[in-house]
Design goal:
The protein is an alpha+beta fold. It contains 13 helices and 25 strands. The C terminus is likely disordered. The protein binds uridine-diphosphate-2(N-acetylglucosaminyl) butyric acid.
């Protein structure tokens, strides 16, 4: 059985919606609990499939996980004894690479299945993670779909300069260094809000990490971490996605449970495009009733414009007057979704890392596919803005990272529903759900 979204587009969005906990913080904090031989109460966990998969991986490793309520879990990894995790499930989640850093930190060794995750059509290397682990005394091998790492004499603090600004490598080195012998310094570290969140989580469990949020992070290894409770920050990209949706459809939506500072890079661009964004303490009011204006976007590591918002904003720019230029500065390829937008009447030309978007009067509903999480979100936005019916396939990608997307959008007036259908059959004979 597969599921599609069916969207009747063309309606402006009005109302309120609430943002969930940050996916990219949750998928690091859950593996980070492996470092703690005690109960960690984690609050504001988003209900998304990447989180479910990681919780299942931890359970298979011997962790005890108790659901306190919908968004709160008690995770106790004290009984985890084996520094290996070679489940097939791991190949489906990119963030399972954090289990390598966490196991190295706890046991000084790790055998882990190679991480999977969203595929933008190119290679997603982990050489900078390996560079960090090696500098700290681990010998690392990648063979037969497994990553094996072992520090014969235990993990030692070290100084690591990242050749590329990498979110994953920065977090993984923090995990491996928290219990290491001595001080680790990461230079050219990533500065995303979720890096700070992971450091805050570890510090609240007794780690000594300073400088997270700047490009130099110092981790003084401690003997052990203790249990405690921690609440995950709101999801910057989920909020940005709904902001982009309102920009595209027009209307007025109050987006609650956000940290407006984390949204600055997105807000600034939307304002250039003719959208009004009013910031409250923990909410933003997004309004558009005039025409959309063109702009140029270059994606960069934080505080630059996030690559994870590139497909969504490109979709909105399809409806702006004039020509916009988008440059992808993080991933070598992330434009597969463009061919789907062309089916809906968009005018976009891609050349390497650059996309030239010529604004059109309207998009028209069509059957489209999600090729990855954010590409899928872009298809939903395109469907909401388009005249007529859009069918969005491949929604398992979307559900990896957006909690209750349908319900949240319906709550602000979108006409969007699920349709289940047997894989082989044609959509005409499906039940609408
Ligand atoms: N890179 C290397 N070597 C490495 C690691 C990264 O060359 O060892 C390169 C990558 O090829 C890429 C750049 O460095 O060109 C940045 O990659 P980064 O390591 O920062 O990405 P990541 O940690 O694998 C996380 C998010 C992605 C997000 C990127 C960039 C998670 C689980 N994933 O991936 O999120 O695009 O950072 O911000 O945190 C998403 O949420 O849709 C998503 C794909």
């Amino acid at each position: 059985m597969s599921t599609k979204y069916i969207i009747n587009g063309g309606n402006p969005l009005f109302g309120e919606l609430e943002i969930s906990g940050a996916k990219n913080a949750a998928v690091a904090i859950i593996p980070a609990t492996l470092l703690v031989k005690d109960v960690c109460r984690i609050e504001n966990i988003p209900q998304i499939s990447d989180v479910t998969m990681l919780l299942n991986i931890l359970k298979s490793m011997g962790a005890e996980i108790r659901t306190v309520n919908k968004h709160t879990m008690d995770i106790d990894c004290s009984k985890v004894k084996d520094p290996s995790a070679t489940f097939d499930l791991m190949r489906k989640v990119r963030a399972s690479y954090y289990i390598i850093g966490a196991l190295l930190g706890r046991f000084g060794e790790a055998t882990v299945a190679m991480p999977g995750g969203c595929n933008f059509g190119g290679v997603r290397p982990i050489d900078q993670h390996v560079k960090g682990f090696t500098a700290m005394g681990a010998e690392v091998d990648q063979n037969n779909g497994l990553v094996t790492a072992k520090a014969e004499n235990g993990m030692k603090g070290s100084s690591i300069y990242l050749d590329v600004v990498s979110v994953g490598a920065t977090i993984n080195i923090m995990l491996a260094a928290s219990l290491a012998d001595g001080t680790t310094v990461i230079e050219n570290a990533a500065r995303e809000p979720h890096i700070v969140d992971v450091a805050n989580f570890l510090n609240s469990m007794g780690a000594d990490i300073r400088g997270a949020g700047t490009n130099v992070i110092k981790i003084r290894g401690v003997k052990e971490l203790h249990g405690g409770s921690y609440s995950i920050i709101p999801d910057q990209i989920e909020a940005g996605t709904y902001m982009a949706a309102v920009a595209g459809t027009g209307g007025q939506v109050l987006i609650k449970n956000v940290i407006p500072k984390h949204l600055d890079c997105i807000t600034r661009k939307l304002v250039e495009m003719g959208v009004t964004v009013e910031e409250g303490d923990d909410c933003v009011l997004v309004k558009r009733d005039g025409p959309l204006k063109r702009t140029n976007i270059k994606t960069l590591p934080y505080p630059g414009f996030p690559t994870d918002m590139q497909p969504q904003i490109a979709t909105v720019l399809c409806l702006a007057s004039g020509t916009s230029i988008i440059t992808e500065g993080v991933w070598a390829t992330r434009y597969k979704y463009v061919y789907e937008l062309l089916k809906m009447g968009a005018k976009i030309q891609v050349d390497g890392r650059t996309a030239v978007v010529e604004g059109v009067e309207r998009l028209t509903g069509a059957p489209v596919t999600s090729y990855d999480l954010r590409a899928g979100a872009a298809m939903v936005i395109a469907g909401l803005c388009a005249q007529g019916v859009t069918e969005v396939d491949g929604i398992n990608y979307i559900e990896r990272g957006y909690e209750n997307l349908i319900e949240k959008l319906r709550g602000v007036g979108a006409d969007i529903s699920y349709v289940n259908y047997p894989d082989e059959e044609n959509l005409n004979s499906k039940d609408a759900g």
